[in-house]
Design goal:
Number of strands: 5
Strand order of the largest sheet: 1-5-4-3-2
Distance between the termini: 21 Å
Structural class: alpha+beta
Radius of gyration: 19 Å
Number of helices: 10
Largest sheet: 5 strands, mixed
Shape: globular
């Protein structure tokens, strides 16, 4: 990416993570932490994953030292996570441990799609599927809303280049573009949601308190997205939409308040896209964009984005 196209520099976050209102969490019965079921971690290396078929999404555990000593099948992991759900929510919501403590106690939570599954256990919503379904319908409306924003120019240039390189993934690029543009539509800072670093640069977690995605290289070319929170790398992803969904899920998994500088962005995702209520009204700016996109969809025949021109 050219120097004049670089996104704004990210300011290190110094604020302490805050817990969300109780209405946004699962109902739990407080119990002492001694009742928790945990696994010891080891420093064994994780085998590198092979390329999957077509659009298969892959997730790699970045913190390999937190892999449990005992090897379990995906079915056994899911069963364990279901059985320990109430205890885990009590541990996180009531005792409010730091994320490193959660990793030590429940390392399986940071493997595969378990954070998305945890979000679904809490809200009964399939986050990744719902976001993709929404973007199929409204991505071009979000893109159109951001056309006149000067700060959106670097994103549009990257998106255009990506679409030219692989026209077959046009709809996917529209989805990525729309999600990256959401903060700008609300006059919020996209670099506090996802930040790009050089491809050969090491991920610096210092000062990163609230959840953020770090992309090695351009978001539209990268296959290395790191989810970072509380100065800890939680997971690494090869695909953006899965990384974005897990980023949002992490606020619920760790019962954290949305940061003020992304307040409208995350509230829009929660209340307009996912339709998850928390007892508070949808912010006015979110409501305004929701109505604008509904009008846009009616004007365009409520058709999906496939084949439409940006």
């Amino acid at each position: 990416m050219a120097a004049d196209e670089k996104w704004p520099e990210f300011d290190d976050m110094s604020q302490k993570n805050k817990r969300k209102h109780a209405a946004m969490t699962a109902e739990v019965v407080p119990i002492p932490s001694t009742a928790l079921v945990g696994f010891k971690s080891s420093s064994s290396e994780e085998d590198s994953s092979e390329k999957g078929e077509n659009d298969e999404k892959k997730i790699k555990l970045a913190e390999k030292e937190h892999m449990p000593r005992e090897s379990k099948t995906p079915e056994e992991i899911n069963k364990f996570m279901e059985e320990t759900f109430d205890v885990r929510r009590s541990f996180i919501d009531v005792e409010m441990p730091g994320i490193p403590s959660v990793i030590e106690t429940y390392p399986y939570l940071f493997t595969s799609k378990q954070m998305l599954s945890e979000f679904q256990r809490i809200t009964k919503v399939d986050l990744d599927h719902t976001i993709q379904e929404y973007c199929v319908k409204y991505a071009l409306g979000i893109i159109e809303s951001a056309k006149s924003l000067p700060k959106a120019t670097p994103i549009f240039k990257q998106a255009d280049a990506a679409k030219q390189d692989n026209i077959a993934l046009r709809q996917y690029w529209e989805m990525v573009t729309a999600l990256c543009l959401l903060p700008l539509v609300f006059n919020e800072d996209v670099t506090e949601m996802i930040r790009e670093i050089k491809e050969d640069e090491e991920v610096d977690t210092q000062g990163q308190v609230v959840p953020i995605l770090i992309s090695k290289g351009s978001i539209f070319k990268s296959d290395e997205f790191f989810l970072v929170a509380e100065e800890t790398i939680l997971q690494e992803f090869e695909e953006f939409t899965m990384a974005f969904a897990t980023l949002f899920a992490s606020y619920w998994v760790f019962n954290m308040q949305f940061p003020h500088n992304l307040y409208n962005t995350y509230n829009f995702v929660q209340k307009a896209i996912l339709h998850v209520r928390d007892g508070t009204p949808i912010p006015p700016q979110c409501k305004q964009l929701q109505q604008k996109l509904q009008t846009w969809a009616r004007r365009h025949g409520d058709t999906p984005t496939r084949g439409r021109q940006v």
